[in-house]
Amino acid sequence: MSSSRTTEETYESQNDQRLDELHSKIRTLRGVTTDIYDDAERQHLTLDDTGNAFSSLSTSLSQSSRRAAQAFGLSGAGGVRQMRIIMYIVGSFLALWIVWKVKGIWWVSESA
C-alpha cells in the first residue's frame, strides 16, 4: 500500500508540475494576445488618422483648384476664354526668349 501511495503522490506531483507549466503557457499566450490586440488598435487609429488627413488634403486641394479656376476666369460666366490663356502663355514664352537673346548679345559684347 505504501508503494501505491508513493506512486499516487508521484503522479499527483507530476500533474501539479504539468498544470503549473500549462498555466505559465496560458499566461504567456494571453500576454501575446493582448499585445496583438493593442497593436491592431494602434494601427487602426493610425489608419483612421491617415484617412482623415487625406480627406482634409483632398478638400483643401479641391478648394484650391476652385480658387485657381476662379482666378484665371475658367469657371462661371464671363470668364477668360481658353484662347486668351493660351495667348498669355505663348506671349510669356516669347518675351522670355527675347530677353534671353538680348541678354546673350549683351554678354558677348561685354566680354569682347
Short description:
This protein is an all-alpha fold and 112 residues long.
Average pLDDT confidence is 86
Give me the number of helical elements: 2
- Regions with pLDDT < 50 over 5+ consecutive residues? none
So what's the oligomer here? single chain
List how many beta strands DSSP finds: 0
- Major beta sheet summary: none
- Helicity, in percent? over 70%
Strand content: under 5%
- The helix/strand class is mainly alpha
Order of helices and strands: HH
Which geometry do the CA atoms define?
rod-shaped
Radius of gyration from the CA trace? 40 Å
The rounded distance between the terminal residues' Cα atoms is 124 Å
Membrane topology: Single-pass type IV membrane protein
Domain T-SNARE coiled-coil homology: 9-71
GO biological process, one term: protein transport
Protein name: t-SNARE coiled-coil homology domain-containing protein
Secondary-structure blueprint of this entry?
Blueprint: H1 2-71, H2 82-111
What features would you describe in this structure?
This protein has helices at 2-71, 82-111. The chain has two helices and no strands. The protein starts with a helix and ends with a helix. The chain has 112 residues and is an all-alpha fold. 89% of the residues lie in helices and 0% in strands.
Brief descriptors of the model:
single chain, 112 residues, mainly alpha, rod-shaped, membrane, BET1_SNARE, golgi apparatus, t-SNARE coiled-coil homology domain-containing protein, transport
